[in-house]
Amino acid sequence: MTESGSSVLRGIKALVAAIAGWFCIALPAGADTLNEVLSRGELIVGTGSANAPWHFKNEDDELVGFDIEIARILANGLFGDPDKVRFVTQAADARIPNLVTGKVDIVCQFMTVTAGRAQQVNFTRPYYREGVGLIVLEGAELGDYAALQAAGDEVRVGVLQNVYAEKTVHKALPEAKVDQYDSPNLVSQALNARRVDAAVMDASTIRYLAAQNPDRYAYAGKAWGPQSYSCAVRRGDADWLHYVDTALREAMLGVDFDAYADAFEKWFGIRPDEPEIGFPQEYK
Amino acid sequence: MSEFLHQLTLSQGALLSGVQVTIYISFLSIIIGTAIGLVIGLVLTYAPFLARLPFRIYVDAIRGTPVLVLILAAYYVPAVLGVSLDALSSGILALTGFCAAHMGEIFRGAFQSVEKGQTEAARAIGLTFPQTVRYVLLPQVIRSVLPTWVNTGAELVKGSTLLSAIGVGELVLRTQEIIGRNFMTMEFYLVAGLIFLLINLAIESFGKYLERRLTYA
User: Fold this and answer.
1) Are the beta carbons of B79 and A103 separated by less than 8 Å?
2) What is the model's pLDDT at position B77?
3) How far apart are CA A215 and CA A193, in angstroms?
4) How far apart are CA B14 and CA B20, in angstroms?
């Protein structure tokens, strides 16, 4: 639901990516981004600048968000300084082209892992599992998933227009009436104006909106449709990929857990559980 | 409304920096593009066929390509060839190339509209070609080029909005960033639209001023 941009633009970018990809394959192997970054003294990260809570400009015009914090965790691991990172602003459909043409060392921009994309770039370990959820107005009569379900075909749900919109909504609320809107902004306007009882949005957006405006929005307690968000690096750069994987894993499960958990709590309003001490839980 | 004014106050720094980048890019592209365009126009009008050919190909290729494609090409093609330009330089390169091709064609038209007898007369009284350009052709050409030049300038300002696609922080991208924070889509796109209108009205009235000056000169 976070993909945007016209299909023409996507087509052009895909073409550029294809040409660039061809050149990259034609180039001799043996890229060593890890050493390049270390000798440069600065990590160059491709990300966006207009999608809260992932990567956006705050009121002081600084780039903030969960993707930004992930990039800072990586920079801190490299240089012991979370500020030694330069962000290159890019549109969502420039993620792969900018990576394969060497504009950036890594992309951290709410990038959904798909098998198709994995043939163009190397995905790192996922750092978030996105899905869609139901958002309602705080104090609304149909205030949680059980109530919405019980209301059957009386429920009207707003959703961002897309091919799978009806199907997506009906997975959670099989009988609901579905209203599709052109932009995320219009979806929230419909909810505010009570033209819909609930809206389907990215779970992260709901968590963020509810954390920012606790007296206005509430999370209805249902999320579905999993997709993994990972950073991406160029293909065939094993040391670099391994560094990023290690840094991300230890941020979620090891020594940097606090930095990850702080960022998670800051942007999504909840704190992940601390990893169990003892046998490493990821092998269970 | 008061929420909008509050957000507008918070965003004025971002909007202002967007306007600055938009004007900076447009200004540079117009100035450099016009200078190159003048040379192209002269070559297309007066040079022999073989010298003219590469310029003709350049002008036709650029004019036949959408600006967005030029911008993406200026950003990605040098990178593939091993020269990595940042987004801002790529944007200026693309718009300058675009402007040069259009101005070249505009200058060609203007030079050709000057009667052949005048260049012949200039040669007869012993003026060199640069002197002919300077004293005979340019004073007339500038006057006939002005309205289309102003038009091209306004087109460039509008074309610069496409640079948001490669992440240049011009007015449109800055506006999208503001909307990404406060979700006031209609309000802030309207603000951006008004600012673009103001910039282009200013260019237009500057053009009218120049036209008046040069007509009476």
Assistant:
1) yes
2) 93
3) 16
4) 10
A136 and A101 in one domain? no
Q: Which residues of A touch B91 (CB under 8 A)?
A: none
- Taking alpha carbons only, the member of A281, A257, A284, A282 closest to residue A271 is A257
Torsion, Cα of A76, A80, A86, A88 (10° steps): -20
Distance, in Å, from the CA atom of B192 to the CA atom of B156, rounded to the nearest integer, reads 16
Are residues A146 and A240 located together in one domain of the fold? no
Residue pair A103/A16 in contact (Cβ under 8 Å)? The answer is no
A231 shares contact with chain B (CB less than 8 Å): no
The answer on A208 and A156 residing in a single domain is yes
Q: Which of chain A's residues have a Cβ under 8 Å away from the Cβ of B169?
A: 89
Q: Based on the domain organization, do A219 and A150 belong to the same domain? A: yes
| B203 membership: H or E segment, kind and range | helix B185-216
Closest Cα of chain A to B161: distance in Å?
A: 14
Q: How many domains does chain B have?
A: 1
In the three-class reduction of DSSP (H, G, I as helix; E, B as strand; rest coil), residue A56 is classed as strand
Which domain does A144 fall in, by range?
Answer: 131-226
Nearest CA in chain A to B69: A12
The answer to ipTM > 0.90 is no
Number of domains chain A is built from: 2
Using CA atoms, how far apart are residues B198 and A35, in angstroms rounded to an integer?
Answer: 49
Of A13, A61, A185, the CB nearest to B183: A185
Same domain, A24 and A100: yes
Supply the CATH number for residue A17's domain.
Answer: 3.40.190.10
Q: Do A56 and B180 touch (CB under 8 A)?
A: yes
Cα B156 from Cα B28, distance rounded (Å):
10
Over residues A190-198, mean pLDDT: 94
Chain B residues whose CB is inside 8 A of the A4 CB are none
Q: Please report whether residue A126 resides in a domain.
A: no
A185–chain B Cβ distance below 8 A for any pair? yes
Q: How many CB pairs under 8 A join A and B?
A: 74
Residues with Cβ < 8 Å from A182, sequence gap 6 or more?
A: A161
Q: CA of B20 to nearest chain A CA: how many angstroms apart?
A: 15
Token pair of B214 as six digits: 């040069």
**Residue B8 pLDDT > 70, yes or no?**
yes
Looking at the predicted structure, is the pLDDT value of residue A18 above 70?
no
Q: What is the CATH number of the domain that holds B86?
A: 1.10.3720.10
Question: Is residue A66 included in any domain, yes or no?
Answer: yes
A90 closest CB neighbour out of B10, B167, B181: B167
Q: Which residues have C-beta within 8 Å of that of residue A116, sequence separation ≥ 6?
A: none
Please indicate, yes or no, whether residues A116 and A206 belong to a single structural domain of this protein.
no
Interchain pair B69, A88: CB under 8 A? no
Query: A103 and B165: CB-CB below 8 Å?
Result: no
pLDDT digit string, tens, across residues B155-210: 999 999 999 999 999 999 999 999 988 888 889 999 999 999 999 999 999 988 98
